[in-house]
Design goal:
By secondary structure, the chain is mainly beta. It has a single domain, classed as Jelly Rolls (Sandwich). It is built from no helices and 15 strands.
């Protein structure tokens, strides 16, 4: 995480930490969070904070901080972000002001002639990819035919404006890197622009995001979303 992180999830085995996933299917699969019930997970959803939010303390998300010390600053490295009363944001905070959504992954792909990895960032809270709107991706699916370890990052810089009529307006400039270690091979996507007008983003409450991984064949593999964060630019 960074000092400008608003809110984030990190990998772990505790409640509301990102869970490791083993997938043997070609279905796009959302990153998930552990819950209080062992074996039960919930879709990981990042949302911009609303001024009506009621917030308690947050554990620091940095690996360099003491996670047992609660603070009121969204898990930041230091300080309070934009004011002195949580949640530090009002209804105009994100209107026409860019922000960033960042995801990172590690994984191990099963060897198969059609094996590949694709990472996508979506607007929407649904656990099914088709229900959401894709606003960032890692480019063409990267082949992982030989099987083995991979790592990926996808960063989307987003600008949104309050819509008129049926649609809000949202545009993203995203960059991504996938590294497949056994070959090795690296795929880099830089500054790709995607523009979508969608009723889901009519108001600030619609600025919610999910992250998906898709395997190219049913052999699948195991992967871990290591961080899913929303930041100021």
């Amino acid at each position: 995480m960074n000092a400008n992180t608003i809110i984030s999830y990190r990998a772990g085995t505790g409640r509301n930490q990102l869970a490791s996933q083993t997938i043997a299917a070609t279905t796009a699969t959302a990153a998930v969070l552990n819950t209080d019930t062992v074996g039960t997970t919930a879709t990981a959803v990042i949302a911009v904070p609303l001024q009506s939010a009621i917030l308690g303390g947050f554990n620091p998300q940095s690996a360099n901080a003491n996670a047992s010390i609660l603070g009121p600053a969204y898990g930041r490295l230091f300080g309070t972000p934009l004011g002195n009363q949580t949640p530090y944001f009002n209804s105009d905070a994100f209107d026409g002001v860019p922000f960033r959504v960042r995801t990172s992954y590690t994984g191990v792909a099963v060897a198969n002639g059609a094996a590949s990895i694709l990472i996508q960032l979506c607007l929407g809270s649904a656990s099914l990819l088709g229900t959401n709107v894709v606003i960032g991706n890692s480019g063409a699916a990267l082949a992982t035919v030989a099987g083995g370890a991979w790592a990926a990052t996808l960063v989307s810089e987003i600008i949104w404006t309050i819509g008129s009529g049926a649609n809000g307006n949202i545009a993203s400039r995203h960059s991504a890197t996938i590294t497949f270690l056994p070959t090795p091979s690296v795929q880099v996507v830089s500054d790709v622009i995607q523009t979508n007008a969608t009723a889901a983003a009519l108001t600030e409450a619609g600025l919610v995001f999910t992250s998906f991984v898709t395997h190219g064949n049913a052999a699948g593999g195991t992967w871990q979303c290591t961080e899913f964060a929303l930041e100021l630019v």
